[in-house]
Amino acid sequence: MGLFLDFLTLPVLGAPRLVHWMAKKVTEEAERELLDEDRVRAQLLELQTGYDLGEITEEEYERQEKVIVERLNAIREAKAEQRQ
Predict the structure, then answer these.
(1) Residue 63: other Cβ atoms inside 10 A
(2) What is the pLDDT at residue 70?
């Protein structure tokens, strides 16, 4: 019965269902990128490389490192909350 009902309501509800599905997928992808620890670690590595090459000062390194480490900690906390 469910498939038959879906078929009958397709002309009316098809577009809203598609929009809902697309919005859900976009949200899932945004969350995945937001909680990507590897990307944040890569930023930390780039920062370290820039400092080692003398491209940024120690003060700038420390300021940016603090922001990146805070972001990494927030990601870990968010993932821990999701598991609970």
Answers:
(1) 12
(2) 95
What tokens appear for 47 in the block? 């920062």
Is the full-model pTM beyond 0.70? no
**DSSP notation for the chain:** -HHHHHHHHHHHHHHHHHHHHHHHHHHHHHHHHHT-HHHHHHHHHHHHHHHHTTSS-HHHHHHHHHHHHHHHHHHHHHHHHHH-
Tokens standing for residue 42: 């890569």
Q: Give the model confidence (pLDDT) of 27-44 as tens digits.
A: 989 888 888 999 999 999
pLDDT tens across 2-11, in order? Answer: 777 776 777 7
Residue whose C-alpha is closest to residue 73's, from 46, 35, 42, 29: 35
